[in-house]
Amino acid sequence: MSKELIRLHDLCMAFDDELVLDHINLYINDSEFLTLLGPSGCGKTTTLRIIGGFLVPTSGDVTFDGVRINDVPPHKRQINTVFQKYALFPHLNVFENIAFGLRIAKVPKDEIDRRVTEMLQVVSLKGFENRQISQLSGGQQQRVAIARALVNRPKVLLLDEPLGALDLRLRKDMQNELKRIQQQMGITFIYVTHDQEEALTMSDTVVVMDKGRIQQIGTPEDIYNEPKNAFVADFIGESNILNGTMVRDGVVRMYRREFQCVDKGFAPNEPVDVVIRPEDIDIVPVTEGQLVGTVTNVTFKGMQYDIIVDLGGFKWLIQTTDHSPVGAQVGVKIDPDGFHIMKKSEYSGLFGDYSSYSEEYEELADATLADEEESGDEE
Amino acid sequence: MKKSNRFGNRLLMALVFLFLYAPILILIIFSFNAGNSSSVWKGFSLAWYGKLFHNRLIMQSVYTTLIVSFLATAIATVAGTFAAIGFYAMRRKLRDSLVTVNNIPMMNADIVTGVSLCLFFVAFFNGWGSFAGWLNSIQSVIVLPTRLTLGFGTLLIAHISFNIPYVILSVGPKLRQMDKNLIDAAQDLGCTWMQAFWKVVLPEIKPGIVSGALTAFTMSIDDFVISYFTAGSSASTLAMTIYGMTKKRVSPQINAVSTLLFAAVLLLLVIINVREARQEKRAAENRINL
Amino acid sequence: MKNKLSRLAVPYVVWMALFVVAPIIMMVIYAFSASNGGFTLNNFVKMGAYAEVFIRSFKLALIATAICLLVGYPVSYFMSKEGPRFQRMAMVLIMLPMWMNFLLRTYSWMTILENNGLLNQLFQKIGLIALYNRMTGADLSYFPMMNTQGAVVLGMVYNYLPFMILPIYSVIIKLDGSLIEAARDLGAGSATVFRRVILPLSLPGVLSGITMVFVPAVSTFAISQMLGGGTELLLGDLIEQQFMGGAYNPQLGAAISLVMMVIVVVCMLVMNRFGEGEEQAVML
Predict the structure, then answer these.
(1) N or C: which end of chain A has fewer CB within 10 A?
(2) What is the ipTM of this complex?
(3) Domains, chain C, ranges and CATH?
């Protein structure tokens, strides 16, 4: 990655005394695909709207190419946005929607024709020029919204949950499509989502946010493998998070037992959070297990089984391809690099226990998340 | 069982429409009466139409009615649209209380609106009279009129006042239905505030503006009570003229003028409907072609 | 950012203060003023003499509203069950008379109800009057219909019936069809569906229809003067007389207007409260 394009310096935003962004510091490189990831109300949309120029931060600075742009109105920024639910103009057809920005900029007519046609090709919507917006499917509207923004050749494209309204299949296709377009056009994408999988699939850099603060910045691999606290560990993928004590470098104690691990740099006997990913745990015969527990729930997930195992009152989620019946005594084995040790944080003890685990619960949580997102960040 | 039910339903509707239209039909029929009675038929004649056009009182009041209605509708439509946008952009608390005030003229009995406006105008004119008198007495550069009276101006103000709420009522929902992000999107694509308004907001809320204007015009044409209290003696709408006549003897010229107005409205409606039908047909064809 | 747009409302807020709020304040001031300008409650005391007019106004307006509801509700309901073209046509037909000034339409009723008007001519032709005379031993040459309370109520119903139909119809037409299907699915017959689902859900339309009919009916003065012949004095006539008629007394007129406004507002508040309760009951 090359040079820095946008910098957010000590950004704070308050609505009616409620602090929505709490000292955000972030820089974004040219041609980077950066994702702001977090639950509803975490401040990600607010951050995006500040970059787009729709909100003026309460304090702190936004710089673009080294120039402070806090007070530059949106129509003077070299930034375009793909809005949540697209915000296409219903009274204009596909062509006119895409041409809108060029017409405002008084671009000559033949150039408009050329550039719009070119954009239609990029988003695979050739032949749809004269369609009304109401005649398009969700995925097609999505493409029009992207074309409408990109045709202005912005330096940065902001995308606010652009795939939220699409069904799962289409979402997967569009993820690839977006990544392809970003690479083809070579511009910066700043992408907002609450879907961790989307973030990991597409991004160069992921910024995990919660409660108006940045929790972690890193590549998808970093974020997944080295979560900084219980919130990140839980939000990105599935995690069992347990209380432990770091005895010394490379040794962690939990369940009154010492385990080999690869983490270092903690104080002797420091209390820590221990993260173990469900796929890093093996189920073995009782005699070979480091720990022994009882299977309480088994769910077939296609690729693997989700097995809940009660280990001394704490329920672990284990993902494995082997089936174990409910009620069976099983041994559990974890390799040293399966442990990930985190410092205690305000999130310790809030996440990573699967006592109340059920599929319905998971779906419900997702649904409310998606609903709240619409109103949550806006007001 | 089902069939007879349906017949009963339609019979009731037919009776209601008969009830609504019989008086209008009778009014129209007797405008062609040769005699000067509105209940005894003496043969066909267009005499009343001829006389109508020479009746200065009626023609003048028709003219006043149309002018007031058109002016009030035009002004109320523009003002109401801006006000609706302003309300839409406000914080909820402030908006709710302003909307309540806005609803007062719609909920209040016409006579209360008329009387209160009348009292207000008279009080204002009194105050103005003493102010203008005082100003004229201390200087002679500007000479202000000291005696203002109820007339066309107050009539127009009253009509604008009771029309604006109807415009807001029909524009407001269109604004709320509009995707909040449309204005942002327009700005994002390079529009200034003004451009965003003209190119995006206005086309979106146009149906609301049109129906608001139509309601306002209907209200103006149909109004009698508020005009009666605010027009004074110098201006008279058609309704006021008719009211004055019913106290003595009504001339069939009134039937003639009603017939003409009714025909005009009917024609307008037919044109609007035909155009709408044509547009719908074209839209349907487009859909098929694609 | 959005707040910039809210400035667009400023001119109208000023306008409202001037031509909506100030006039009402003016009316209140007048209501509490003596003719020489001093404060008095006399205007309200004087009103006692007109208790009869108050009662008559509310009685006639209530009857007219009830008739409008009884006729308007079934019409709206039946209309909503017809095809879209029929509905559109019916809507136009209901709106159309409103484009003709209501005085013209009321005037037409005068020619119908007169002693030697069209209805009496018709009754004569078909021998109804003769039949009546033979049966009762009376000696009428016409049925007296003009200048009666009945004629005034008829005028109110005629003029305000569309105001009842329109709001009810627009609520019924928006009812979610799946609600009715759901009710049927849960075992409700047509009558039950109507009583338990459609009726309660259309209540907001009914309430706004009632207000839209009752308020102008209780305050009318033109209809009562034209069809009631000035003998059946209503509140509107009383107020009008204080401003335009011989009994010039704007302070009293303002006081009557104020009392009428307060009564109407209180009625509406009570009704809306009742309506909200109903809606919540339905939601539960």
Answers:
(1) C
(2) 0.86
(3) 50-283 (1.10.3720.10)
Judge whether A81 is closer than 8 Å to chain B, CB to CB: yes
CA atoms within 13 A on the CB side of A212: 14
Pairing relationship of beta strands A240-248 and A270-276 according to DSSP bridges:
antiparallel
Is C1 an 8 Å CB contact of chain A? yes
pLDDT at B265 over 70: yes
> How crowded is the C-beta side of A174, counted as CA atoms within 13 Å?
23
Give every CB contact of residue A277 below 8 A, 6+ residues apart in sequence.
Answer: A237, A238, A239, A240, A338, A340
pTM over 0.95: no
CA-nearest of B252, B259, B254 to B240 is B254
Q: Which of A81, A83, A90 minimises the CB distance to B204?
A: A90
Q: Is A55 on the interface with C (CB under 8 A)?
A: yes
CA distance A20 to A13: 5
Please check whether residue C5 touches A, CB under 8 A: no
Average pLDDT, chain B: 88
CB spacing of C99 vs B13 below 8 angstroms: no
Domain B56-250 has CATH 3.40.50.2300: no
- Minimal C-alpha gap between A126 and chain B (Å): 13
Give chain B positions within 8 Å (CB) of A91: 203-204
Domain boundaries, chain B: 56-250
Mean pLDDT throughout B228-232? Answer: 91
* B200 contacts on C by Cβ (under 8 Å): none
CA distance A62 to C264: 57
User: What whole-number distance in Å separates Cα of residue B184 and Cα of residue B187?
Assistant: 5
Question: Alpha-carbon torsion B246, B250, B255, B257, what sign?
Answer: negative
H or E stretch at A323: none
Cβ neighbors of A307 (< 8 A, separation 6 or more) are A283, A295, A297, A298, A299, A317, A318, A319, A320, A324
Average confidence score pLDDT of chain C: 86
Q: What is the pLDDT along chain C (284 residues), one digit of tens a residue?
A: 456 778 888 999 999 999 999 999 999 999 999 888 888 888 899 888 889 999 999 999 999 999 999 999 999 999 988 888 888 888 888 888 887 888 888 888 988 998 888 888 888 888 888 888 888 888 888 888 888 899 999 999 999 999 999 999 999 988 877 888 888 888 788 888 888 888 888 988 999 899 889 999 999 888 888 888 877 789 998 999 888 877 888 899 999 999 989 988 888 788 777 665 444 433 33
Asked if the C-beta of C49 comes within 8 angstroms of chain A's C-beta atoms, the answer is: no
Higher-confidence position of A366 and B47: B47
What are the chain A neighbours of C1 within 8 Å (beta carbons)?
54-56
Q: Is the dihedral of CA A185, A189, A194, A199 positive or negative?
A: positive
Distance from CA of C186 to the nearest CA of B (A): 22
Write down the architecture of domain A4-225 according to CATH: 3-Layer(aba) Sandwich (3.40)
- Distance CA(C201)–CA(C222), nearest Å, equals 35
* Nearest alpha carbon to residue B167 among B137, B208, B138, B201: B208
**Residues B177-201 pLDDT 10s:** 888 889 889 989 988 888 888 999 9
Computed over its alpha carbons, how large is the radius of gyration of chain A?
24
pLDDT attached to residue C1: 44
| Closest alpha carbon within chain B to A16 | B91
d(CA B103, CA A341): 64
- CATH code, A240-376: 2.40.50.140
Q: Which of B12, B30, B119 shows the shortest C-beta gap to C74?
A: B12
Question: Tokens in use for B191?
Answer: 């529009």
Q: Where are the domains of chain A?
A: 4-225, 240-376
